[in-house]
Batch of 3 targets.
Target 1
Amino acid sequence: MVNLSRKVFSLGEIRYTWVLLLSIIICIVTFFCDEHLSPDDQIWLAVSYYASFILATIWSVANYAEHIQMNSLYRKQNNIGAYVSQLALNKEDKLELQNYLEDFAADLEQQGRSKEDAAKEAINQFKVKEFLSMSKHTQPFELHGHHYLIGLALLMLFSALLLFILDQAIAPGTLILFIMQVVLAVYGVCFITLFMLYRIVDKLIYRKLKQYFS
């Protein structure tokens, strides 16, 4: 439960925050102008609303892409111990493999390679020969849980509720407070929807990768 709460409220994992904030600000300003000024020319209002929506869409795609990471087993490695420890082997096989790779790297060092280059080359040679068979159940990408979107949605909805209470207690009917309530509530609901959409995309990617690597 504690671990889940930490994931939900890890808002620092949000990427490209400035794009999201710009989308929210444009939406609030456009909404205010629409309600307060009521201009005859509605074209620029439509453009502003679309700009806010497009920025939010760009943010959702960029944020998702930023959380996709290469599986650690597929990354470039120059530490034999760290690489072997990630493989699905028992303790004895890991020790045997590590000794083999370290001996191979030592031979490369005697040939003039640096320690780092020798370790990297030994790992790469092993990958070419044995990696696919030993890691056939692994996938090349690690996908994020995206729990922070739930935390962000709760923050938005709670902020909208506080503004509603403030509006009713101090100055009922204040336009700017009403607009902020609506925008925050809408974005909060959208974050919940985005969380579900992210999970659907995750499952589709996992399914495709499973079919490809099985």
Note: The helical segments are 2-8, 17-37, 43-66, 80-85, 91-110, 115-134, 148-169, 175-213.
Target 2
Amino acid sequence: MGTSFGRGGATQSLQDMANADCIVIQGSNMAECHPVGFQWVAEAKARGARVIHVDPRFTRTTAIADKHVPIRAGSDVVLLGALINYVLSNELWFDEYVRAYTNASYLISEDFQDTEDLNGLFSGYDPEKGGYDLSSWGYQTRPHEGASGQSPEHGEEVSDHAEGESHGSGGPPAAAEPLRDESLQDPNTVFQILKRHYRRYTPEMVREACGISEEDFDYLARSITENSGRERTTCFAYAVGWTQHTLGAQFIRTAAILQLLLGNMGRPGGGIMALRGHASIQGSTDIPTLFNLLPGYLPMPKVELQSSQEYINSIASKQQKGFWANADTYAVSLLKAWWGDAAQPENDWAYDYLPRLTGPHGTYQTLTAMLRDEVEGYFILGQNPAVGSANGRMQRMGMSHLKWLVVRDFSLIESATWWKDGPEIESGELRTEEIDTEVFFFPAATHVEKSGSFTQTQRLLQWRHQAVTPPGEAESELKFFYEFGQKIRERLADSDDPRDRPLLDLTWDYPLHDDGDPDAESVLAEINGRFLTGPDAGKPLSSYAQMKGDGSTAGGCWIYTGVYADKVNQAARRVPGKDQDEIAAEWGWAWPANRRILYNRASADPQGKPWSERKKLVWWDEEAGRWTGKDIPDFLVDRAPGTVAPEEAGGAAALDGDDPFIMQADGKGWLFAPKGMVDGPLPTHYEPQESPVRNPLYAQQPNATRELFPRWDNLSAPSEGEPGAEVYPFMFTTYRLTEQHTAGGMSRWLPYLAELQPEMFCEVSPELAAERGLEHNGWATLVSPRAAIEAKVMITERMRPLQSGGRTVHQIGLPYHWGVGGEAVVSGDAANDLMGITLDPNVHIQESKVGLCDIQPGRRPRGTELVELVKKYQQRAGLDLETGNVRVTDPQAEVEENR
């Protein structure tokens, strides 16, 4: 993935935020969306930390912050890039940390050309394929000794596959030793390229692009630099306000670069806190519900990889540094966990049983396949796409093309009832009697009605014990899928079709409770892994380092190995905080290996001494000859500072004593990502798919590698400067409320919560209200190229007009919890109906934090008149399939790339 900071999760523990000297919350309303975790921000503030909230809206988070920095949604790379420039131009980087622990000194290929050279594009762009050949982004290298015959580095060519996720948790493999210039003066060093790249990201550019005053920028820049270094640390926290953009992965990358320059990675009170939206969103990516990942961030194989060895060679190299070189042991142990005795060397560990990728197969690709009648059936589990996914109309119309639909939920959510009371029934676009989709509803148990683990925002597994029996026919997911699997296997028992072997050979036997529920702890034990042969056969593994690639171990998710060590459910530990130190190592279990701060070798200097006593975490004990400290060292415990690994070594043995980033292919934090990011080795500002301003930095307006879905039911608004831009003049962004929960399935059916936030509303500034004649508590109609919705008007100074791009930019705030249906206590139009579908190319997340619309006073039309209103706007704007979907917006850059 190219990031320097994570294996799919936040770098720090939540309570470690209390140790920060400065906290920047950007892309999150943490107080309202993560109120329990926010206690640690309040604790940090009580200890004297400075808290800064960067957000388009003034919220409850802002209310306790020392400073609110309002920003135009989608312009975050400009702000973060300007902070990088501030650090570099004022020589405020943590020099010893940067030289020792990052790739600042590495030399990049002389063929590399930056956005500064190509007016917004990097070298290697292919405008026909809409992607990059990454070969010119690589290091200048000299081969490792003994590296001949090694497979080439993966991901060098333009591909339609999910390249951003194809490298797993360790980044892409490295096949050679990078050349360096320790003086950092060579123009091809990462350090010098970084300086040139962000040179034009200035306070004046921040004012122009973000609408942030130079005074506010100066306050932010001084705050983070004065609170970083040997004695102090700054923490960044983000949520979907960063991720849900066509540039979302690069937002996070920019923060990672900044934190590396300031020396805040791997240290108490530092890092980057990825705030997850639900109790187990982290768990659903660790043991994934994602199409392109296997458990533990192992990439899903691609169709062209015919053997397990080809697969392993494509994601890891035995010559690269760090523990990701052992990806073969994680993969084989996973195959043994799933297929047991059926996975043998003779059949390549049942590798052929795994599905293969032929391209992106995410939510939105599946949706368009539905509309092409290429999908017969669909399961909806804990989701409500009719309300919660972008372009709600497309979601509902897509479901009308199915033969069958299974919905598991607590109540009859809109995704279960769209066929009888959805918006398209009212508008006449769908008729219930003409819909062939057969909908099955299965009542689901709530979290208090089942046992199991949550993996929450800080990579912490916590066990929940069943409190009450689920009512009626409601079942846990575990029971539902166990019995579903049993029934399928019974149906196929006599099959001799090879395609049925993966189902029949699955290890699918778990002890059952009296109510028929499989024992959840037995599943946890399977995920943890065990020895299969030898003197310890049957015993749980205690560390992923014990996994083998010879079939002697099994484990369902290598990063979770240790959660069931010694046959003890470590996730169920609840030693009170008063009985522990601040690390709280006996509350639950954090992956990997119960470490609470990732890459904590970086908390000590290259000689193994803490950078300061105040920020002491782990250190080298000279007398004992090992690493020790408050946290579990995230390093080889006996690898001494100053150790130079043998040149021919690979994997963990190749780590030098000053290589703290043990999952990276070179042991360093990446200021420049030579592989792994499909849209650029350095974060670069591009405007959103729909933008009210022109890109002030480059002629290239949007991200040229974004994933596009040009369809007549997914039209885009013209951006500023394009014909018809005046038809949709205002920005809108979506957000969450504390009183309601996501698409509303857990809150709009509860009278106690529904009465707290009973109606869909929109937040507008007094200036916009005056311009459009909106009245407080009156109705407004909002129209985008996809839909028109109505909402009650809340006129508030929390929404502030910004000056950006030489004009006044108005932003409208929309909560996204309401949907149209007759089952809930309260219903209302869905904000996500307004959203179009355009995706980040790295992780296939939709851009749902920025869109363009018009707003007018009064309620929306009903029936066919609503459809006609949307069409009239489309016609006035002159929309067609090319609107907003041109990849290269600078003809000169395209000419240069095609020479």
Note: Residues 1-7, 146-165 have pLDDT under 50 and may be disordered.
Target 3
Amino acid sequence: MAGGGSAGLGEAEARDVFERWLAEDRVDRFDLGRPPLLRFALFRLREDRFRLVLTNHHILLDGWSTPLLVRDLFALYERPGGESALPRPTPYRDYLAWYGSRDRGAAVAAWCGVLAGWRRRRCWGRWCPVRVGWCRVRCGVRFRRV
């Protein structure tokens, strides 16, 4: 069990310990000023059954990146010490170069086309994702305050 072992515990006891640990982990909030912002815990529930729990602050991983992390983690697990099992990361400067080469005018036109028929704005709290000044000016799409 996370930091210990399940030696001497029956399956039901091991599951109870696991469930209690999960309940405690759910309320153990992350402090951005104090590492770690990512926790791993491995539990042995039976001789041949394990649970890996990954807990992270949402600033580190989101719905897109979590599956990538898990994919890489299992690739490394299958090949211990074999970092070549992972794809080479694309340097961030390459992404910035690609992004800088995009046609901003075409992007604005595409989004204005998408928003053109949308007359009602929905807001959640005080933040409105469609509050974009250039779209009002260039598309003629006007959103009224709700």
Note: The longest helix spans residues 11-27.
